Amino acid sequence: MNREWINVGAVENFAKDLGSCVKVKGLQIAVFNLSDNNRWYAVQNLCPHDKRMVLSRGIVGDKEGDPKVTCPMHKNSFSLTSGQLVNEGDVGNITTYPVKVEDGKVFLEVAI
Amino acid sequence: MNQQNIIVIGNGMVGYKFCERLSDKDTQKKFKIITFCEEPRPAYDRVHLSAYFEGKTAEELSMASINWYKERDIDIYLQDKVISIDRDKKTVTSEKGRTLSYDKIVMATGSSVFVPPVPGIDKEGVFVYRTIEDLEEIIAYAKNCKTCAVIGGGLLGLEAAKAAQELGLQTDVIEFAPRLMPRQVDDAGGEMLKQLIEAQGMRVNLNKNTKKIIGETSVTAMEFVDGSVIQTDMIIISAGIRPRDDLARESGLTVGERGGILVNSSLKTSDPDIYAIGECVLYGDIIYGLVAPGFNMADAVAEQLVGNKSASFTGADMSTKLKLMGTDVASFGDIEPKDKLCKDIALNNPHTGVYKKLVISEDGKRLLGGVLVGDANEYGNLLQICQNNMKLPDDPMSLILPKNDDAESGIGIGDLPDTAHICSCENVTKGDILDAIENHACNSVSEIKSFTKAGTGCGGCIPMLTDLFKYKMAQDGIEVSNALCEHFELSREEMYQVVRATGIKTFAELIAKHGKGAGCEICKPAAASIFATVFSEPILDHASLQDTNDAFLANIQQDGTYSVIPGIPGGEITPDMLMVIAEVGKKFDLYTKITGGQRIDLLGARLDQLPQIWKILIDAGFESGHAYGKSLRTVKSCVGSTWCRYGVQDSTSLAIELELRYRGLRSPHKIKGAVSGCTRECAEAQCKDFGVIATDKGWNLYICGNGGIKPRHADLFASDLDKETLIKYIDRFLMYYIKTADRLQRTSTWMTKLPGGLAHVKDVVINDSLGINSELEAQMQHVVNTYECEWTNVLNDPEKLKRFKHFVNSDDLDETVQFTRERLQIRPLQHSEKP
């Protein structure tokens, strides 16, 4: 399958240490701009547990050094690097997307 | 299999305890328990009867509900009593004509108040103090009285006197002996107690032998043998008890010369099929008029019935510790040994109102007994030393001297033998508690309490229980960790203190200096809440720390939309303001519902609609209702004296004032309040974190109630307060809770887990025992002074407004949010309903 880097907007549109939701090719993707070391992550916006588009509104943090996002609905946490559920339970994992920043713009790599 | 019939005659505290113990131990269901209770309600806590005057209800005083008996298959006959026992046919017959056969009888008939046979004792206005019905009669009669005399200056007499004073009566205590509490304290201790009681406005009359009661039909005065007379409108008799042994006597059982059913150490009467326990019993020439020995007797009989033949009662320690009118009084062991050589040491400080005496063996090595008045903190420790015959430290005075915080007490909990009784009400030893921790996975004081029942009686042993738990944990190398999460070793309380002390205002600095890693959904909102209380800055200045509800100042719903709840202080709203809400509801097509907190909830709002909705509401004069926050929700009220014909105070105005005062206050969990205008309690204040109920004289304050996940009746905190004092107390209480509670801990759970419980909170808030009240008040005042509506703050800040949008790269809406209609309003489409 072909993949393509898509421009999703200027860096300043993405608040620090928070998630923001972007629409890319009909997909909802949550983008996280973490202030320590200027790391960026992108994952599906849909929480696999109750199937709502809410992960961009979760709190970010880390579990033993691995960055994670916690769903605002029922506090399931997912690794931002692997997409794995990192707490107990079996609600499933999430898809992650590569992110890069170039010339003050944020790009996501998605299948087309 | 045929069950044996056990008939328990009398359902007082001891009769109840026997039912509990036997049904607990009888795992094979060999016994059918049948109990008779002459009163209209099952056993209640007679020891704390005076709490009834402070607003505790009969239900709260109850040892167990009727359902409890049903669940255990115990038959209980209320308002009926056994009037005869046919020992040949082995049957009992009751007043209501029930005849039942028995295999064993347990007599727990208790005692009655000793009424001195003086002329005029039958006049109107003379009462005894024993049952809830007695109290109700006293309360009714007291309405037309100004003064009251209490005959009896012992334990029960002083309880009754306290009750009379609570009823607003000028109270005289009349004692026959030359000192108060002649059985429990010595002369010097009695004198200290007298001074402390007189300082509270009572009169104490010693060496008074009542000669007659004066008055035509009702009492007006009483005359004493020494010729003196006092005027009084009513008399309460509480001058000792008499065992109720009539039934035993009539049934041909042996009773003592001066009363009491004679039992041996197996608690068997002269008929081996009939046991007797509690205050009706004479054992070794002693009537045990305390609850703890009665419970021990109940336990011993239950043990014997289930097969432990060696279980026995061989006398009990009459040590006591109690709080009388706010004053600690305790005594243990032999306080005035007659036949032993001993050396006393005493500490007597009339300035602080503290008297302590230790009776020490002649060689200075053993503690024989002691008296503590005014401060009985060392009671548990001293009692253990005395009961276990432990060697005293070289200078025993160190055991009773006032301590610095860090000074170690003379003898530690670790030195106690395993046989030491920690809880004498429930007969639980140190060994039992260690066993509960080691072998029954009890990992907290509350788990130990529910497993062993220790600390569930008078509660006096809880400090020692807590020490023992901590000692055991430390010994096993287990740290009792209160760490918030993997990022902070600190507990929430410690984090609060760090923020207060250092003035750190950002999470980045806090975690860099006092934690590790990047934080998480636990520590970030906890820190955000603390920053909000300590610095009182807008919460969206820390947007990345907030849970989604706080991040968007609205409650997220199951479909990802939000609800909007405008503040309606006290539930009071004009028709014009109602129309504003109605217009918003119509304009944005929101689902509209009345909340439990007297407000209106508008549901189904999208992120991008929230600022538009709030703009309209705020322009019309509404403020945020903070329904999304761990903060004050509402102060519910009734219409009060302004409208209601029963109301005695203006509850609505007070509710509005309180809601406006504490609006936006950030706390470990949500806080709810209510104000009722009279005792009918229409605002349901007693299930709130703070509840206020109007009285004729002011306001009663209740704290730490909960109607939610685990309902808890609020505790009466203080009575008849004026408004200024009321607000001061609520300020201090709320700030103390905010300062010390764990995250997501409501006031009700905070209270049940707080060492010292209600008494401790009273001590802090009313007596300033920690010396922090001015700080608590100043902090609250700061929050009140710097309050700003959170939504107004956002609407004025374009940066903050940017976040109220579903996509940052598109103006499209979230197409997965879809509604259908039900009963004319929108509701979210469930996944199964989607095409």
Explain the layout of strands and helices.
The complex is a heterodimer of chains A (about 110) and B (about 850).
Chain A: E1 3-10, E2 19-24, E3 27-34, E4 39-44, E5 59-63, E6 66-70, E7 77-79, E8 96-97, E9 99-102, E10 105-111
Antiparallel strand pairs in A: 1-10, 2-3, 3-4, 4-8, 5-6, 6-7, 9-10
Chain B: E1 4-9, H1 13-25, E2 31-37, H2 58-61, H3 66-71, E3 75-78, E4 82-86, E5 91-94, E6 99-101, E7 104-107, E8 111-113, E9 126-128, H4 132-142, E10 147-151, H5 155-166, E11 170-174, H6 187-198, E12 203-205, E13 210-214, E14 221-224, E15 229-231, E16 234-237, E17 241-243, H7 246-250, E18 261-262, E19 274-276, E20 281-283, E21 286-287, H8 291-305, E22 320-324, E23 327-333, E24 342-349, E25 354-361, E26 367-373, H9 379-387, E27 421-423, E28 428-429, H10 430-439, H11 445-452, H12 462-475, H13 492-502, H14 507-514, H15 523-535, H16 548-551, E29 555-556, E30 562-564, H17 575-587, E31 591-594, E32 600-605, H18 609-619, E33 632-637, H19 651-662, E34 671-676, E35 690-694, E36 699-703, E37 715-721, H20 723-740, H21 747-753, H22 757-765, H23 773-785, H24 790-795, H25 798-801, E38 819-822, E39 825-828
Parallel strand pairs in B: 1-2, 1-7, 2-3, 7-19, 9-16, 10-11, 10-16, 11-12, 18-20, 33-34, 34-35
Antiparallel strand pairs in B: 4-5, 5-6, 8-17, 13-14, 14-15, 20-21, 22-23, 23-26, 24-25, 25-26, 27-28, 29-30, 30-32, 31-32, 35-36, 36-37, 38-39
Please, could you describe this protein's structure?
By secondary structure, chain A is an all-beta fold. Helices cover 0% and strands 48% of the residues of chain A. Chain A is built from no helices and ten strands. Chain A has strands spanning 3-10, 19-24, 27-34, 39-44, 59-63, 66-70, 77-79, 96-97, 99-102, 105-111. Chain A has a four-stranded antiparallel beta sheet, with no helix packed on it. Chain A has a three-stranded antiparallel beta sheet with strand order 1-10-9, with no helix packed on it. A three-stranded antiparallel beta sheet of chain A has the order 5-6-7, with no helix packed on it. Chain A is globular, with a radius of gyration of 13 Å. The mean pLDDT of chain A is 92. In chain B, the strands form eleven sheets. A five-stranded parallel beta sheet of chain B has the order 3-2-1-7-19. A five-stranded parallel beta sheet of chain B has the order 9-16-10-11-12. Residues 404-410 of chain B have low confidence and may be disordered. With 835 residues, chain B is an alpha/beta fold. In chain B, 30% of the residues lie in helices and 21% in strands. In chain B, helix 1 runs parallel beside helix 8 (291-305), helix 10 crosses helix 12 and helix 20 crosses helix 23 (773-785). Chain A binds chain B through residues 8-9, 13-18, 20-24, 28, 31, 34-36, 50-54, 57-65, 67-68, 70, 72-73, 75, 77, and chain B through 486-487, 508, 517-521, 523-525, 543-549, 551-552, 556, 558-560, 802-803, 806-810, 812, 814, 816-817, 831.
